[in-house]
Amino acid sequence: MTSAPVLALRGVSKRFGAVQVLTDVELEVHAGEVVALVGDNGAGKSTLVKTIAGVHPIDEGQIEWEGRPVNIHRPQDAQHLGVATVYQDLALCDNLDVVNNLYLGRELKRRGTLDEVTMEQKASELLSTLSIRIPSVRIPVASLSGGQRQVVAIARSLIGDPKVVILDEPTAALGVEQTAQVLDLVERLRERGLGVILISHNMVDVRAVADRVAVLRLGKNNGTFPVHGTSQETIIAAITGATDNAVTRRQSRTAEATQ
Amino acid sequence: MSNNIETPAPAVQQAVDPRLLVREQGFSGYISEFKRKIRGGELGSLPVIIGLIVIWAAFAASNGNFLSASNFEYIAYYMVGIGTLSIGLVFVLLLGEIDLSVGSVSGLAAAIFAVLSVTHGVNLWLATLAALATGAVIGAIHGFVFAKIGVPAFVVTLAGFLGWNGLMLWLLGDTGTINLPDTGLIHLFGGNSFFLNGDISGAYILAAVGVAAMLFSSLSEQGRRRRAKVPFRPTSEVVLRTAVLAVAAFGSAYVLNLHKGVPNNLVFFLAALIICDFVLRRTSYGRKIFAVGGNIEASRRAGINVAAIRISVYSIAGFFAALGGLVISATISSANQGGSDPNNLMMAIAAAVIGGTSLFGGRGKVWSALLGMLVIESINAGLFMLGEAQSVQYMITGGVLLAAVVVDSLSRRTQKSSGRA
Ligand SMILES: Nc1ncnc2c1ncn2[C@@H]1O[C@H](COP(=O)(O)OP(=O)(O)OP(=O)(O)O)[C@@H](O)[C@H]1O
Ligand SMILES: [Mg+2]
Prior knowledge:
- The complex is a heterodimer of chains A (259) and B (421).
- In chain A, 36% of the residues lie in helices and 25% in strands.
- Chain A has 259 residues and is an alpha/beta fold.
- The model of chain A has no long low-confidence stretch (mean pLDDT 90).
- Chain B is mostly helical and 421 residues long.
- Chain B folds into 2 domains: 46-193 and 263-407, ABC transporter involved in vitamin B12 uptake, BtuC, CATH 1.10.3470; 195-262, no CATH class.
- In chain B, strands 1-2 form a two-stranded antiparallel sheet.
- In chain B, helix 3 runs antiparallel to helix 13 (306-331) and helix 4 packs antiparallel against helix 5.
- The longest helix of chain B has 28 residues, at 200-227.
- Chain B is globular, with a radius of gyration of 23 Å.
- The model of chain B is unreliable at 1-16 (pLDDT under 50).
- The chains are: A alpha/beta (259), B mainly alpha (421).
- At the A-B interface, helix 2, strand 8, helix 4 and helix 6 of A face helix 8, helix 11 and helix 12 of B.
- Residues 45-46, 88, 168 of chain A line the site of magnesium ion.
């Protein structure tokens, strides 16, 4: 990589009361690169995402944007830089319909008033590219299934003109076809020169689309690996913190059983 | 606005779910959609309209004078004061919060107006402006303490309820009552001021303008949606909606004309409702109010300044409280110690909820203020005609309020179970 990373975290720490959730975390994302962020439950992945998105300001360290240090205190700051985030808890307003959720905070206007027609038109187009079936873009989000809600949240991050897209377990609730669509989408984002941070517990998905895998363990970096040329075992060992872990033990047990 | 990242791939055909309840075309589609909504708990204005008809029928059966033009004129005139307080409360309820101070603020605003204009001889319009600005600033203070310091809104506005009442009593001093001359805004809001001086044409002009505006905006929206190839209301539905409005508008005009015409304070009330409805449904500010009422954290993450929305909404409630205070003092031609009667507060909250605005936030319309006040004022007028004591009025209005919140809670439950809350 020659140019500066579009987004870089330098020694970021975050504490909630007595819990040190993130300690000196380093992370770099270049334009046109997909970085997978993996780690066990509670490793601090979602918290890291929220610090980048401005939901929780960082305690220590520095966030750099295109090589320049920036301050991200509020979600607006991250949005203005060009960070779009799909949160693990989706963060949708249940009482608003799909169109209103997609455009929440950046409504299209026509002569000073809301341009519902154009928003509805674009929303339908966007959702059909993600091949999701939604009864109507005018029903409240509360009446959608978990996967439909997740696709709405993903679609929302594509409105506007982000430079970095962060997806926190975007396929957790999705069916086979929708998962494939989201992975396709991640590849399209990369082709368009965006930086993508993808959080997932699914190693198959991660290996399918990511360029690099960054491992977080107990709130600290535990290695960054290029996807090509790194074995699955190495990554799992980094996630669990030992070569002798539940995953390898289970594998050897099943191997013995089949012999 | 920049382009979406996604340009739809032509290969992707529109995915249509076979289980989808497709709405039938034309009028039968409208009826079946309507039935589905009722079953799903989206009751909208239906319970209150049914309730209003029942109330009118009951009073008409027990007193022949209830359905007289003069009685409807009385209802239309006296509902405006508290109805104006109720407009502000709708904004607050949409956030899922409450404002207990509006009654006291309305009394204080009337007292400020009276003291400035009568006691100190300040220009009438300047005094009006001072009263309204005081209301808005007081509301903003409540909003600030709630949004920035984090004191529950209930407690902040309860403190305001007591404190501003005290300030009003102090301002009015020993005499306790200041009579207001029939000029300026007080004349406009008073009982002797009618649209076009009560000329027969006045009421019909208002009705015609309202119906034409609704028809024009529905048709132009239908055309725009049709051209953009998104679902649009069939013409039959547009015609039906316009017809319902036309019957209500021209019917009211006819009845009011039988007596003295359209009181000017009602014209102001309707104008305020139309403006607020526009702000809530057509502007991004209004959209943000609904969003904060639905999910505070999601709104914050979407980049909405939640504190600014809260402060501004409480300021709007304070402004309408002050405006309502001026209307109330105009109807009684004085500012007195009863100006911040706690019953006004209870009636204003009751009106918003009876009219269909949810106590749980994120759901409601500003028209609730009108519908709810029609119910409350009809009950008051009817019981007054029957010679019932105030005690009975309170008990019945209390019962209606309870019924309204029960309907609100039940419809929320139905909406949850049919996945729409
Ligand atoms: N707002 C908060 N206040 C206090 N502690 C928190 C808060 N948010 C997260 N934590 C703690 O921070 C740690 C990391 O949580 P985080 O949600 O970042 O994990 P994660 O890596 O996303 O896990 P998962 O894979 O389960 O989503 C957890 O121990 C959690 O309890
Ligand atoms: Mg997480």
